[in-house]
Every structure is written in C-alpha cells, then in structure tokens.
Amino acid sequence: EPLYVGKLHSDMDKGDGQVKYYLSGEGASSIFNIDEDTGDIHATKRLDRERQAYYTLRAQVRNRKTNLPVEPESQFIIKVQDINDNAPRFLNGPYTAQVAERSPVGTSVVTVEATDADDPTYGNSARLVYSLLQGQPYFSVEPRTGVVRTALADMDREIKDRYQLVVQAKDMMGQTGGLSGTTTIFVKLTDVNDNPPRFLRKSYQFTVPESVLASSVVARIRALDQDVGPNAEVDFRILDGDGLGTFRVFTDLSSQEGLVTLQKTLDYETKSSYILNIEASNRHVDTRFLLAGSFNDVTTVHLLVEDVDEPPVFSSSVSWMEISEGAPVGSDVGSVSAHDPDMSNSPVRYSIESRSNLERFFSIDSLSGLIRTNRALDREGCVVHNITVSATETMDLSQVGTVVVLISVTDINDNAPSLALDYQTSVCENARPGQVVETLSAVDPDEPEPGGHHFLFLLTADAAAANHFTLRDNNDNTASVVMQRAGFLLRDKPVHFLSVVISDGGRPSLSSTNTLTITICSCDLQGRRRRCSHRATLDPDGLSAASAVGITCMLSVFGIVMVTTVTRWKRKRGVPQMMDEERDVQENIVHCDDEGGGEEDTEAFDMLTLRHLNQMNVITSNDSRMNKNKLLQEFIRDRLLEADHDLTAPPFDSLQTFTIEGGDSAADSLSSLSSLTSLESEQSYTFLREWGSRFKKLTELYEHRQGGGVA
C-alpha cells in the first residue's frame, strides 16, 4: 500500500482547484508520487536506508488552465529513517591464531571485529556486544573490544593442542530482539620446552660380535621427549663405565637416537663385557621450567662381546728378514709364528702364496714356519723379495691369516768391474808423446764399500810391450790413456786394440779385461781430423760426400737425356716451330671478360690509341721493345681494315648502347615520351641544328618529319 510521507501546500492554493502540484527529482514518479490536487506525497516502494538514506526532490505549483508556474520551484529533502534490519557480520572470519602453551591468564590471542550496516547515530541498531558461545573455560572475549584472551592457566600442548572457539556479535546492545552474527576462531597451542627427555628403560643390553670393525654402530638407544622441534633435540654422553676408551656415543640428528659406536677392536678372550652409563639431556633448556625438575635422564647400557671364530694371528703384521746372496740353496732365512686366538686354539699350517713367489725362490715348513731358500739368489737381480705367508687353521680351513715377509738380499763381491762406456777413440797420425787420448771410467754392479768403489786400471803384458800407449791412474776411479811414442801411419796400421785390465777392491778382488779400440786418423796441422780408417765423413742427411756427388751426377745426366728425347720426338712428328713475332703477338693480346663503362669510363684505358693509330708514337728503351709495339700496331690496323670493308659487319666501334640516361648533358631530355603530351601533335625539330655536330644524325632522322607527330 502507498505510504503517506507528507503534504505540500502553496499559499497560492485557495482551495478552488485553480492550481495543481508537480514533483520532480530523485525517485519522482518511480518511488514518490504527489497528488496534484492536494499535494499529498506517498511512497509506492519499500525504502532501504543502507542503499540510499536521502532523496532530493523539487516541487512546483502551476495554473491548471495555463500550465504556467504561479510561484518559483522549491526544493526539499526526504530522509529515510533507519530501523534494525541488518545483522552484524564478521568480514575477516574465520580466524586462526596461535598462543604458547602454559601462557598466563589474560594473554591476548586474537581480536575479532564485526560490522553492522545500520545507522550508528540512530538508536542502538549498530551498537554491538561480543560474547563467547564456544571455548569456555579456556578462553574469554571482551564484550566491547572483541579481544580474545586465555582464561585458564597452564594449558598443556601435550594434552590438547588445538581449540575451536565461536564468538557472537549482537546489536541493540545485546538486548532481546537484537540481531546477531557469529564467527569461528581456530586456536593452536605452540610448544615450549616444558618436558625433559626420558629413557624408556633404566637399562639396556646389547650383544656385539668381537669381529665388528672400528667405527661401526653397535647399539641404538632412544630417549623420548614429548616436546617437538628444537625443544625435543637431545644430546647423549657417556658419564662413566669401563668402556670409555672403547666406545663413544653421539646423536643421530634425523632420528634423535643415541648411536653407540666402537672405537677400538674387541677381543672376547681379553674382555667379554662392558658397562656404560649414558645421560640424555635437552640441547635447548627453558629456564622458566627448571624448578619443576631436572631436564636429563640416565640409563645403563650392558654390552656383551660375542665370541667369533677368528683366523690365526701372527706375532707381527710385517716381518723383516735378511740373507746373503752367496748363501747356498736350502739355507735358513727365518721363521714366522702364528696362533689361533680362539678358545679352541686350533693348530695352524703355513704356506707361501704362489702369486708372491712366482719364481719359487723360497719355501716354508708347513709345521714350523721356517723359511728356506729354494734357488740361488742374486742381489743385482732383486734386492728385496716381498712374499706373503698364510697360516690356516687345521680345524677350519676357511680361517686364514696372512703376514707380509720382506727378505733383504745382502751383497757379496761376485761381479767384476767393466768399462762404463763403449768408447770410440781416435788419434791423429801426428800426435805427440804424452798426449791424453782418452779418459776411462768403470762401473761395478756390486754394492760399494762404505768408502765407495776403488778401481785399478792396468795394461796387459802384450799391450805394455807394444810400447804405443800407457795408462795413468787419476786416483778418482778413472785412468787416462796417454801416447807413449809418435809415428803412427794410417796406411800401415789404421786401428790399434788396447787391452785394459780393471780390478776392484773387494774381497776377493775381481777383475776383467776390456778392449779399447783406437782409430788412426789423418789430420791437418790444427789437429782437425780429415780422414779416418773406420768411417767416412757424413753429410747432415746421413750420406757420405762421395755418395752425394754421385747421386747429383746421375740426376743431371738423366735430365739431359729427357730433354734431348723430347726434342727429337717433336722433330719426328713435324710439330711446327713458332716464330718469335707470332709468339710476341700472342703474349701481348689479353682477353678480358669485363664489360667497359662506355665513353665516360676514361680510367680503364686510353681510347685515343685505337682511334689515332697513324699518330701513335711509342717510346721504348731498346730496339726489341720498339719492334714488338710496331708488330702489335700492324695487327690492330689489319683487323680494323677488315671490319671497315665488311659491309655485313655492324659498326661496333662507333655504336654505343646506353640503358641509363646521362645527367650532365647541356641539352634537355631527348625522350619523346616524356616531352610530348597527348595534345602536342605538332613539333618542330629545327632547334636540333643548334646542338652541334654531335647530334647531326638525330637531326637528319627528325628533319624529314617536320610537322609530323611522334610515332
């Protein structure tokens, strides 16, 4: 039904029906209607203040007959009065919040806020009050501010870590009949370090085989901490016990377990059990909770060593022995000893691994472990022999122990010295007595004495009797071969052999006879060798001078024969000989594939030379050059005359074809297409005579068409 809003009245309205009322502005005719006779205003639709709170309208009174205004237009405002038709709303809900466990009462958790679209200035429609519908007795909410706080002390995360709260906002100051809205708050309790680690048991027992390698994990223990994250990190340490030096414990960061590892190898026969007292404590401690008790725990770990059948054990891991290389086959080198460490104490049998004794220099007694030589030894062949000896239990052949035996071979004087080099000695025919021919040195594969080698050099009796050379000891294990007399002749005896005896200072002393070859050479006055009996002078390529000369001569003769043969073959076949004049012409005519640039190209070559052949003056430095140029001129002139008398040949020497019109001409464009339009049917060409002789041909072509059009 239309709702009466108000009434308009004009002083010009006498109540006789001579005037009528008009309404315009916001909502006129659509929302508000006016009775044109009485001026009553009615609302025909429901109004919503939250959408539009004010309407501005204009009213006017007009004469009913003339429809003319009887007074000026007036403006008025209709204000929409609010009613409580909107409930509070939480625009940011639902909420999530966190608060630490064991927080004191009144700790702020989160602040909620609701909005009401009603008019806050009119009545209590927009005045809100907050209350907690769900979450007591752990939390509370302030009625006016919406701040949610803890209401219970010592909330324990380990008991309950998540809470769901429901908060209500109600308008009309919370009175009956007010509208309300709710939101949900999810509260999570965060962890604090309020729980110490605790072992599940007061004592643990583990069995460890004695064959476990060092650094192996032999036990795992766990201490539970109800806290999470860094608050649950645990450190383990050994407090006391009889295995402090044998075992150690550390924390596995991924599983937070205590790992007990072995530091030294175990021996069941020596010690069969160990006891460790291990402590677990928090890495990060919260001092607020220390008064509640200690934050560590202690447990006892029993480690029982399990007996394992072990292989035989040698008295040492490496054994050193020594024997002389002069020892006879079957001599004792040394012995090794091994035993079974187990309680059974099984007998052992010894053997040498074949791969370490391929040449079978040694053998071993399988019962006693005595090593003997099986072959003669040579220190110069091998100084130290590395063999591996195995000990095997007779009761369990799978249990094998090994040891490395290093046998050093000591030296005896069993090698005679010899010359250090293969000397190539030569001497000139004119050498004088006292001249040093060569300095000799020696080597001995035997081990030197503490003071070093001592060599003695002597000539054999025959060499000394020849009286050609003598030896001079230099007292440094070298000797010099010295000329004793002159008078060597290459043709008489080109090579001399000198026998040298070298002995060492060992016990017993050993010696050897070595032959030194001395070649006689022919030399000049300065002592430079020119020719020796046993070799020829070689060139850098490895050929002798005589060989090089012979090859050169052979190649020269072969070249002459080839040239002669080719010349004779040409004469027999009748190949014509080319005249010098023709050869000159062919050598001076050059064929070019490049097209010239026309008459404007003045840099390629001089055209005057071809156009004025009769006036050419060639200046040369000699008669031969002048004859060649004259021949070329005659050749070009003959070709030019042939072209001039040939009526069928086009005049290529005077006809020039241009595809691009030049831009430097003094005359205008000659193109008939661009110079004439469709209206120009007549054209005079007399002006062509003014252009000179260069356009004579063009003038003759167009003069007979005087007055005609362009074809």
Explain what you see.
It is built from 7 helices and 39 strands. The protein is mainly beta and 711 residues long. Helix 3 (580-588) crosses helix 5. Residues 535-548, 579-588, 613-621, 672-681 and 707-711 have low confidence and may be disordered. The strands form 11 sheets. Strands 32, 34, 37, 38 and 39 form a 5-stranded mixed β-sheet that branches. A 4-stranded mixed β-sheet has the order 7-13-12-9, with no helix packed on it. The longest helix has 29 residues, at 545-573. 17% of the residues are buried. Strand 27 and strand 28 form a beta hairpin. The chain has 5 domains: 3-79, Immunoglobulin-like; 89-190, Sandwich (Immunoglobulin-like), CATH 2.60.40; 198-306, Immunoglobulin-like (Sandwich); 313-410, Cadherins (Immunoglobulin-like, Sandwich), CATH 2.60.40; 418-530, Immunoglobulin-like (Sandwich).
Topology overview:
Layout (H helix, E strand, L loop, with lengths): L2 E5 L11 E7 L6 E3 L5 E4 L10 E10 L10 E6 L15 E6 L7 E4 L17 E6 L4 E3 L5 E4 L11 E9 L9 E11 L7 E2 L3 E7 L7 E8 L9 E8 L5 E6 L4 E6 L10 E10 L13 E11 L6 E2 L3 E7 L7 E4 L2 E2 L8 E5 L9 E3 L5 E4 L10 E10 L6 E11 L7 E2 L5 E4 L7 E8 L12 E4 L1 H6 L2 E5 L4 E6 L11 E9 L7 E13 L5 E4 L12 H29 L6 H9 L19 H4 L11 H23 L26 H4 L20 H8 L8
Parallel strand pairs: 7-13, 15-21, 23-30, 32-38
Antiparallel strand pairs: 1-4, 2-5, 3-4, 5-6, 8-11, 9-12, 10-11, 12-13, 14-16, 16-19, 17-20, 18-19, 20-21, 22-25, 24-28, 26-29, 27-28, 29-30, 31-33, 33-36, 34-37, 35-36, 37-38, 38-39
Membrane topology: Single-pass type I membrane protein
GO biological process, one term: adherens junction organization
Keywords: Calcium, Cell adhesion, Cell junction, Cell membrane, Glycoprotein, Membrane, Metal-binding, Repeat, Signal, Transmembrane, Transmembrane helix
